[in-house]
Amino acid sequence: MIRSTSVWRAGFGSSSSLFQGWASCINICTSRPVHAKRTTCFPLNLKLIPQSMERRILCPAYIGRKPNPHNYGVQSIPNTFSMLNTRSIASDNSHKTRSRRSEQNETRTWLQTIYPYARLMRIDRPIGSWLLFWPCGWSIALSAPAGCWPDPMMLGLFGVGAFVMRGAGCTINDLWDRDIDAKVERTRNRPLVAGEIAPFDAVVFLAGQLGVGLFVLLQLNWYSILLGASSLGLVIVYPLMKRITYWPQLMLGATFNWGALLGWSATQGSVEWSACLPLYVAGVCWTIVYDTIYAHQDRVDDLIIGIKSTALRFGDNTKLWLSGFTTAMLANLITAGLVCDQTWPYYTSIGLIGAHLVHQIHSLNINNPKDCATKFISNHQVGFLLFLGIVIGTLYKTNSDDRTKSATTATSSSSSTTGGQLSAAVTSTRNIAV
């Protein structure tokens, strides 16, 4: 026993001490001869085996038996947690994962389907929708009664209409210019040129856009419906002008600023030409300014493929031409303000617009496409400044009208007082004479 105990507590680093321990334990553990088996030895100094289990492992009688996992500190799985439940939970999780992946794939496929149509409408470039909306907003705000805000319902309708009809105009433009866009560096990745959308699908999409635009137009009065429908010819013909004349920007201005007439008729029932015509002309001049700057991005490609634009027409004299159109724009805005009895906030906004455009033209580099694009986008600020000036100027009309009425009342009261005194003096003179 002493010998066996010494073997059990001996170091377990070599196989010789292990087999000596086996030989000593044969008579103690069992009377049957046990042949030594080749096993893997682990040193006890690693403390992988608890000391309470050393005798069971070293004794050959326990070789081949499955040790109780509880002795190693391993917790057993409860009986209530069966393998069937585990598999079912795993199956449920995998089903949820597959469902989530399928939903993601469907969402990705859906987005990939509508993305080319969004690019066809230029949703990723909203500046065009703003430039189409601002003349409508000017006209609606200018037609508001003194001291009143512009009609929010009309602003909302024209905002939706500007967004939809600008997209329709882009679709028409891309259908006409498929052969041209493929030759221009900036436009060769458009959906119709790249084959992401078939021409027939684009026509069907255009019909849907025009349907939405017609629905918005039908919310207005009949005068406005007829006036708005008459602009559809300009929308269709404009893309062809770059093949015919060096003034396609003039046709674009006539199309984009139709809202200057339509906004007034939508709120008043008809067009006040003395106010709306100067506003419309100012918008056309403004469009020639910003779209000429925009056209300088494609000047080299336009020369190669034979496309005409005011950028090519003006050439090195672009800044001089743009200064002339800016002057004409400001003069017509002042005329429209005088007709509508606008107040000083309106004319202040015109001064800020003039300063903005002068700086824009002076700092313009027509040979730098990136600078041209930046200057073009900054025209959004011009539209906003004028709209803000019209709104504040119309609200300020109340104070000026009140002052005018009070001054008129004071003048009439003083004149009546003077007249009464004069009549009393005449009456007293007559009494003395009698």
From TrEMBL:
<dbReference type="InterPro" id="IPR044878">
    <property type="entry name" value="UbiA_sf"/>
</dbReference>
<keyword id="KW-1133">Transmembrane helix</keyword>
<dbReference type="InterPro" id="IPR030470">
    <property type="entry name" value="UbiA_prenylTrfase_CS"/>
</dbReference>
<feature type="region of interest" description="Disordered">
    <location>
        <begin position="401"/>
        <end position="434"/>
    </location>
</feature>
<feature type="compositionally biased region" description="Polar residues">
    <location>
        <begin position="419"/>
        <end position="434"/>
    </location>
</feature>
<keyword id="KW-0831">Ubiquinone biosynthesis</keyword>
<dbReference type="Pfam" id="PF01040">
    <property type="entry name" value="UbiA"/>
</dbReference>
<protein>
    <recommendedName>
        <fullName>4-hydroxybenzoate polyprenyltransferase, mitochondrial</fullName>
        <ecNumber>2.5.1.39</ecNumber>
    </recommendedName>
</protein>
<dbReference type="GO" id="GO:0008299">
    <property type="term" value="P:isoprenoid biosynthetic process"/>
</dbReference>
<keyword id="KW-0472">Membrane</keyword>
<keyword id="KW-0999">Mitochondrion inner membrane</keyword>
<feature type="transmembrane region" description="Helical">
    <location>
        <begin position="320"/>
        <end position="339"/>
    </location>
</feature>
<comment type="function">
    <text>Catalyzes the prenylation of para-hydroxybenzoate (PHB) with an all-trans polyprenyl group. Mediates the second step in the final reaction sequence of coenzyme Q (CoQ) biosynthesis, which is the condensation of the polyisoprenoid side chain with PHB, generating the first membrane-bound Q intermediate.</text>
</comment>
<dbReference type="GO" id="GO:0005743">
    <property type="term" value="C:mitochondrial inner membrane"/>
</dbReference>
<keyword id="KW-0414">Isoprene biosynthesis</keyword>
<keyword id="KW-0496">Mitochondrion</keyword>
<keyword id="KW-0808">Transferase</keyword>
<dbReference type="GO" id="GO:0006744">
    <property type="term" value="P:ubiquinone biosynthetic process"/>
</dbReference>
<comment type="similarity">
    <text>Belongs to the UbiA prenyltransferase family.</text>
</comment>
<dbReference type="InterPro" id="IPR006370">
    <property type="entry name" value="HB_polyprenyltransferase-like"/>
</dbReference>
<feature type="transmembrane region" description="Helical">
    <location>
        <begin position="222"/>
        <end position="241"/>
    </location>
</feature>
<feature type="transmembrane region" description="Helical">
    <location>
        <begin position="127"/>
        <end position="147"/>
    </location>
</feature>
<feature type="compositionally biased region" description="Low complexity">
    <location>
        <begin position="406"/>
        <end position="418"/>
    </location>
</feature>
<dbReference type="GO" id="GO:0008412">
    <property type="term" value="F:4-hydroxybenzoate polyprenyltransferase activity"/>
</dbReference>
<dbReference type="InterPro" id="IPR000537">
    <property type="entry name" value="UbiA_prenyltransferase"/>
</dbReference>
<comment type="pathway">
    <text>Cofactor biosynthesis; ubiquinone biosynthesis.</text>
</comment>
<dbReference type="InterPro" id="IPR039653">
    <property type="entry name" value="Prenyltransferase"/>
</dbReference>
<keyword id="KW-0812">Transmembrane</keyword>
<feature type="transmembrane region" description="Helical">
    <location>
        <begin position="377"/>
        <end position="396"/>
    </location>
</feature>
